[in-house]
Amino acid sequence: YGDLSCTDIICCVLFMLVITGYMVVGILAWLYGDPRHVLYPRNSTGMYCGIAPNHDKPNVFYFNILQCATATNIMAAALQGLQCPTTQPCSSSHRPAALSSLTVYRRLVAQESVLLFSGVSLVLMTVTLITLTLQPPPTSLSLSDMMNSFNARDVGVRIFADFASTWQWIVLGLVIAMLASLLFLLLLRFLAAILVWVLIIGVLAVGAFGIWYCYNEYTLLANSPVTYNNVGFTTNVNVYLQIRDTWLAFLIILCVVEGLLLLILIFLRTRILIAIALIKESSKAVGYMMSTLCYPIVTFVLLLVCVSYWGITALYLATSGAPVYNVVALNASQGDCRSITGNQTCDPLAFNSTLYPTCPSARCVFIKYNTEGLFQRNIFNLQIYNVIAFLWCVNFVIALGHCTLAGAFASYYWAFHKPADIPACPLVSSFMRALRYHVGSLAFGALILTIIQVVRIILEYIDHKCRAAQNPCGRFLMCCLKCCFWCLEKFIKFLNRNAYIMIAIYGKNFCVSAKNAFLLLMRNILRVVVLDKVTDLLLFFGKLLVVGGIGVLAFFFFSGKIQVPGSLFRASELNYYWMPIITVVVGAYLITHGFFSVYNMCVDTLFLCFLEDLERNDGSAEKPYYMSKNLMKILNKKNKQPKK
Length: 644
What we know:
With 644 residues, the chain is mainly α. 64% of the residues lie in helices and 3% in strands. Helix 1 (9-32) crosses helix 16 and helix 14 (379-413) packs across helix 20 (578-616).
């Protein structure tokens, strides 16, 4: 690594400028935004309900909700539905003390079941809701019963109580999942060959059983008079299973597939042995560098920072703008309120109703948030910038993880005497190398992927907007575009992953590394396919084994089928025993996926190093092979001893 230099400097500078702009956007959003707009409702004067000085009054009570109808209220129509011209005080409960009036009751049915339950103040009342308020009240179902049936808060409290009483056991289950994943990866050094051949023989055995079953059904229906001409077309699949020719077709298909699998196994047996040897070598590499299994935590933390920053910035941008207050006549029928049009701004702290002596119901009411400023007019553009910068950062974090792990595992492969020649702290060294020299290259690959993802988002948006058009040609074209860009994204991810490996090995720029990796893989396409499928098969089996085992164990434990001695845990005390089970299963999957992703990166890195080793070295004293002795034995290669 002595000849390394910074790569893709232009893209590095561009990425730094985008990150700086992203920070500026976040600062501006923090200065102008106020997330209380979406967290707390406002009363008529614009004061928040649920925080000081109304901390004990979290709800808004619409005194006369019928005033919100723009079709019947002139002032509501003048406000264009932005605000309801009725008194809106903060309330400490969903239902005031006195509810003897039937009209008030009808208003509260709509208000409590639709508005106050969500905790967000109403700004627009639809005709449907007005119709609901005119229906007679129920006679057998009380309002409290209706609210209790939809009380999600109680469900949340019960779930929280279940987590509070089982969190120690949930953590224990996740620790068991971590240890089981680690044990499986380490045992692959000894069991990889056995597992691979057992799985291959198992697939062949399943095919053989299918052939026997189809032949058996075919012979049982030897005297059946039913044919396709008698049946015709029907949606009942069982009818076709009574036809002898159906089982003959199944038998032929399975025989062809079984024969192809046997031929593939015979002609690709050497490549399967190479894949098994690389899997064993990967298990050794992970065993020598156990710190690599902790790197997914770093990636997770960085991704969490990116997601949190994006979410907070989006929230503050969406709530940017100072509140706007207008003079509104709450009851236009009292006095002469023709001079009040609802367009005159006011200050709620300095407002004096005596300035409108002919309209005693004149009040300074909160209407909306200001959208006229330069910053507010560009909120949509800033939100787009927020999304693009977020995607670029996320893809860069993933690229940094790939390059870091690839550099660590490459240092293992290119150590001639293992483990003596493995450098100290290979993971930290690789991480610092990636940050010092290859930020531009990683940002370049992340930018290409980001552009494709933005195009896919635009296509999804257009498809969502045009879905009601029901144009067959347009929908077919849109479906083709979405499919093409989905495939393109998968290909770019594959190309980027191998390009990052080549960057970690040779320190070249992104384009050169991507070209070299692609050409190297194309020259060894059969080995690539075999290794990929064998690795996928093993890792799928490992995930199924670990996650499935932990899930079954969690089910028997939290459902009470496994009793814990003493009074440490009682399953009967849980409200929803499936919640901790789901938590353990999801957590076990995430842990297993994190561990196996490191292992998969190790296999890919060692495979590219192995291909480079084959092409660049010949086993001579000047160019010795760096592969393991097992791989050299499979390939009938060996290193020549230097002449004394």
